Each structure stands twice: as structure tokens, then as C-alpha cells.
């Protein structure tokens, strides 16, 4: 099913693929290699149904850029556009510094032993009923593209993925050097705690905790602790892999 979707996605992906080719290759290889690493930030607000998604992703992308990451922003991109950019992202990853960070925000669902992000043709009522959109971005595809040549990869899926159990999340196939952080409790409603800066609980915790020189295990531990404290354990993030 995913393979069939990707065929349809790739068939409509040329415009952004060309744009991304220009954006990514415009960065000198020497600058990529000297950076802290490559960050890929993908988010969609679904015509303002999820306004926090784009706001949070923008704040996180800014934080990563401030920490010397080569940062690729796919904010408001369709699934077709995001997947069309993957080959260009892969090329940038191979030349970038040692750390990769992948952030995805929007409607999500467990499907065929993967987690998928809906990035086109999705409405809240479809998401709540468990329907799958016609165009999706599989987490495994993004990880494969963006983790090329990485020493460590941190993947953040900032959503409450539908139809997921903890066992299903734990079974998502990841490279050995990759850690997955799913930011909220499985099976519950998203708790949209907004701080004075306008960010939700996860984004605020990430911006507070992230620094390029910190070990991933320390960043993950601090993010999880801050989210649990802010939401009074209504959000209990899931960590897959060894930070």
C-alpha cells in the first residue's frame, strides 16, 4: 500500500524536487561538512486546523539553525512535495556534519509497521475516524534519506498517532544509530499546553533543552521530564532506541 502511494506521490513531486535541488546544492559542501549536522523539519497546519504545528516547527527550525545546523524547512508542504525532496535531502545528508535531527508535526497514524504523517488531503474528521489519506509521508522514508552518513540521528514525531499502541511504535524499524521520540501518550487526546511564547508543550521543552553540543540522551531525558511536568503526565512521550 505504501509503495503504491509513493508511486503516486513521486509522480507529482517534480516542482518542489527541483526547488529543493537548488536550495540544498546551493550550500557549499565545505559548509555542510563544517556544520553541526543536517536538520529536516516537516510540518503542516492543514488549512489552520493545526495552527500550532507550523508555529512550533518554525520555532524548532530557528533553534536548530541557531545551533549551526544546516536546516531544511518543509513547512506547509504537501506529501508529494515532501517526498519529492527526499533525494535532495539525502544528497545534503551525505555531505553534512555528524548529527541528524528530523522533526515531523501533523496528523499521524501507525500503518503497515511504520508511522506516517499526513501532509495532504487530510481533515480532522478523517483523522478522528481512522481514515488514511491518499498521500502520506512515511517516517521510515524520511529517516532513510536524512540519516545518510550520520553518527547519530534523533527523530521526533510531534503528534498523537492514531491506531498506535506502544508495541507498534516500538516495532518501527530504525537504523541502529537512530532514536525515535514520539511526543505524547498513545490513545489519548493531544494536550495543547501553550506557554507565554505561544509554543506547545513539546516545542517549548525542545527549545529549552536543545544545544548542539549536548548528548542526545541528555536532550531526550530533559524534554521528556519537562513535558511530563508541564502536562501533569497527560503526555508521556515514548522513546524508541538507545539515546
> What series of H and E elements makes up the topology?
HHHEHEHHEEEHEHEHEHHE
| N-to-C CA distance | 31 Å
Strand runs, count: 9
Residue-averaged pLDDT: 79
Cα radius of gyration in angstroms: 16 Å
What's the main sheet like?
6 strands, mixed
Main-sheet strand order equals 2-1-3-7-8-9
Structural class: alpha/beta
Content of β-strand: 15-25%
Shape: globular
Q: Number of helical segments?
A: 11
Low-confidence stretches: 1-22, 186-193
Query: What percent of the residues sit in helical stretches (DSSP H or I)?
Result: 40-55%
How would you describe this protein?
There is one protein chain. Strand 7, helix 9 (166-170) and strand 8 (178-182) form a beta-alpha-beta unit. The protein has helices at residues 2-11, 14-25, 29-34, 51-66, 79-84, 86-95, 124-129, 139-146, 166-170, 201-209, 216-230; strands at residues 37-43, 69-75, 99-105, 108-111, 114-120, 135-138, 152-158, 178-182, 238-240. The chain is α/β, with parallel strands linked by helices and 243 residues long. The protein has a 6-stranded mixed β-sheet, with helices on both faces. Strands 4-5-6 form a 3-stranded antiparallel β-sheet. It starts with a helix and ends with a strand. Helices cover 42% and strands 21% of the residues. The protein is built from 11 helices and 9 strands.
Amino acid at each position: 500500500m505504501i509503495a503504491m502511494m509513493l508511486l503516486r506521490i513521486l509522480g507529482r513531486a517534480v516542482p518542489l524536487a527541483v526547488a529543493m535541488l537548488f536550495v540544498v546544492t546551493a550550500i557549499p559542501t565545505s559548509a555542510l561538512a563544517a556544520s553541526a549536522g543536517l536538520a529536516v523539519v516537516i510540518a503542516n497546519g492543514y488549512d489552520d486546523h493545526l495552527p500550532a504545528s507550523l508555529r512550533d516547527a518554525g520555532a524548532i527550525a530557528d533553534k536548530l539553525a541557531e545551533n549551526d545546523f544546516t536546516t531544511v524547512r518543509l513547512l506547509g508542504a504537501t506529501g508529494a512535495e515532501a517526498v519529492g525532496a527526499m533525494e535532495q535531502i539525502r544528497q545534503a545528508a551525505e555531505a553534512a556534519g555528524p548529527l541528524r535531527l528530523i522533526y515531523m508535526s501533523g496528523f499521524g497514524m501507525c500503518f503497515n509497521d511504520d508511522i506516517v504523517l499526513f501532509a495532504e488531503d487530510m481533515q480532522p474528521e478523517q483523522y478522528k475516524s481512522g481514515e488514511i489519506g491518499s498521500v502520506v509521508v512515511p517516517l521510515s522514508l524520511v529517516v532513510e534519506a536524512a540519516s545518510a552518513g550520520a553518527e547519530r540521528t534523533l527523530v521526533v514525531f510531534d503528534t498523537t498517532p492514531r491506531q498506535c499502541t506502544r508495541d507498534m511504535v516500538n516495532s518501527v524499524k530504525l537504523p541502529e544509530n537512530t532514536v525515535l521520540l514520539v511526543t505524547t501518550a498513545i490513545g489519548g487526546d493531544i494536550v495543547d499546553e501553550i506557554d507565554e511564547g505561544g509554543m506547545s508543550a513539546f516545542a517549548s521543552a525542545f527549545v529549552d533543552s536543545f544545544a548542539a553540543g549536548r548528548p542526545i540522551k541528555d536532550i531526550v531525558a530533559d524534554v521528556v521530564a519537562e513535558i511530563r511536568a508541564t502536562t501533569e503526565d497527560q503526555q508521556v512521550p515514548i522513546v524508541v532506541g538507545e539515546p
